[in-house]
Design goal:
The protein is an alpha+beta fold.
Length: about 325
């Protein structure tokens, strides 16, 4: 089963839209946390969703060929809110689904936050404009030469991507064979286990972690430390990065985000922001229940658990239209 309850009671009904496999513990961890707070939930695999129009010409999100959900469309699930657990790498594959649902339901995270975080260049540019310290980032389009960062090697990675895929070193002045936008950044010296990820729920930092690279990447020039690539979480100090994390969440309007920071210029700077951060290994390894904090923020967003951190739960239309 990928759900509990049937949406016919008085408790809040939450849809969790995912690009994970049906047995993914991330989804069930969040679902269990919602259950403990009196909500019912259903996991919906994004690959079964399709935008169409009804007889009145209104957009509707259909559920097609899902063997476990015997309904025609998302509206039939009688949801009160939706949690968007879709990888940034898949954002543009499901953007129409997200846009359509965002007009009807409170979303965690909302359109503006998810749209910004889906693109590494957009994230860096927006945060820099808001005065948040970020790692120097240059947009690299097909045919452009790799920029030089004096004193540093240059890292190139897809502007839309996740899990450390496609991250590599390129020589300054070379023209990489790419067919989509990438970003170029300086390779921050030192081990990647010094980097810090902060999980923030509703502008409240929940935990800060180092991610220790797996054996395959340890000691290489680029130590990919993503948990999806074999990294392991370890506790990290919160004090040096707390205020930056709060500022990032405030500017993005992020309900549940993961912020990656690296040592830079004697302090820390933002490398990128994840709008669908993973919690499972943090919960298992460190005993920090991020699922519970995320579930609380989901219910706050829809007004079922007091006020949300970013205004009333019904202001999503006005926030969606503001991308500045």
């Amino acid at each position: 089963m990928r759900q509990n309850g049937n949406g016919q009671g008085s408790s809040p009904r939450i849809g969790i839209i995912q690009t994970f496999e049906p047995g993914e513990r991330e989804t069930y961890g969040l679902g269990l946390a919602l259950e403990k707070m009196g909500a019912s939930w259903v996991a919906i695999e994004a690959r079964f969703l399709k935008v169409s129009v009804d007889k009145l010409g209104e957009p509707v999100v259909l559920i097609e060929n899902d063997p476990e959900l015997d309904v025609r469309c998302v509206d039939d699930l009688r949801l009160d809110s939706i949690v968007w657990r879709v990888s940034e790498a898949d954002y543009y594959n499901y953007a129409n689904v997200f846009d359509t649902l965002g007009e009807k339901y409170p979303m965690v995270n909302d359109w503006r936050c998810t749209w910004i975080c889906s693109d590494k260049w957009r994230t860096s540019a927006k945060l820099a404009a808001w005065g948040v310290p970020v790692v120097p980032t240059v947009l690299l389009t097909p045919g452009m030469a790799v920029p030089e960062f004096p004193g540093f090697k240059t890292v190139v990675k897809p502007s839309v991507g996740a899990s450390g895929r496609g991250v590599r070193l390129e020589l300054a002045g070379s023209v990489p064979a790419i067919n989509a936008p990438h970003v170029a950044q300086p390779l921050v010296p030192g081990p990647s286990c010094d980097h810090i990820r902060v999980i923030v729920c509703g502008e409240e930092p929940v935990t800060s972690i180092h991610r220790i690279p797996g054996e395959e990447h340890r000691g290489s020039e680029i130590e990919v430390n993503n948990v999806a690539a074999g990294g392991t979480p370890a506790r990290a100090p919160m004090a040096p990065v707390r205020q930056i994390a709060v500022d990032v969440a405030h500017h993005l309007g992020g309900d549940v985000i993961g912020i990656d920071l690296v040592p830079w210029n004697g302090g820390f700077a933002v490398l990128e922001v994840n709008s669908s951060p993973g919690f499972n290994l943090i919960d298992e390894t460190l005993g920090i229940n991020c699922f519970s904090h995320a579930a609380q923020q989901v219910l706050r967003r829809m007004g079922a658990l007091g006020p949300a951190a970013h205004g009333s739960p019904v202001d999503r239309r006005s926030r969606r239209l503001s991308t500045t």
